[in-house]
Design a protein that fits this description.
Length: 163
């Protein structure tokens, strides 16, 4: 899989975001309604990527800078992961792990010190991935803080410099 940085509103990103929203509707009965602005995923305070296999967009993910004061559970230097997704026919090949590793690498290179994310109990695949990759539970944040199915996780990053 080839990972390419793209704008959040790139046509391939928008198609994958629509797929993940449909996935959320199937699992939870509604889309993720977290307020997002495409500009939040632009450098230097954000990043978005699409993964391609044989020229087809099959995976996506991004991060946006978050800091203390935006939410009681967030800290200065956080990078919130959003829209992590792999198309159904491409799952089980390590693509989600590759997307996650690149998001962590780029967030650290941008000076972010911790990744944070929100997922849910109806996504056991995501829960297993994040546990395997060293994410630990944190208090819920954001618009789903009081949702019983919401689970939030964090992982410290090793800060590096952009190449």
């Amino acid at each position: 899989m080839e990972l390419r940085p793209v704008p959040f509103d790139h046509p391939d990103a928008l198609r994958l975001i629509a797929e993940v929203q449909a996935f959320y509707r199937e699992r939870y009965g509604d889309e993720d309604t977290t307020p997002l602005d495409p500009s939040e995923f632009a450098a230097p305070r954000g990043f978005f990527l699409v993964g391609y296999v044989d020229g087809s967009a099959v995976a996506s993910g991004g991060w946006r800078a978050r800091d203390a004061g935006e939410d009681p559970e967030l800290r200065d230097g956080d990078a919130e992961l959003k829209r992590m997704y792999v198309s159904a026919e491409h799952r089980g090949r390590g693509y989600a792990r590759a997307v996650l590793a690149e998001l962590e690498r780029t967030a650290a290179a941008a000076g972010r010190v911790r990744t944070v994310l929100e997922t849910g109990t109806k996504q056991p695949e995501a829960l297993a991935l994040y546990a395997r990759e060293g994410y630990e539970p944190m208090p819920n944040f954001g618009i789903y803080r009081c949702e019983p199915d919401s689970r939030c996780f964090a992982k410290p990053l090793r800060v590096t410099s952009m190449r």
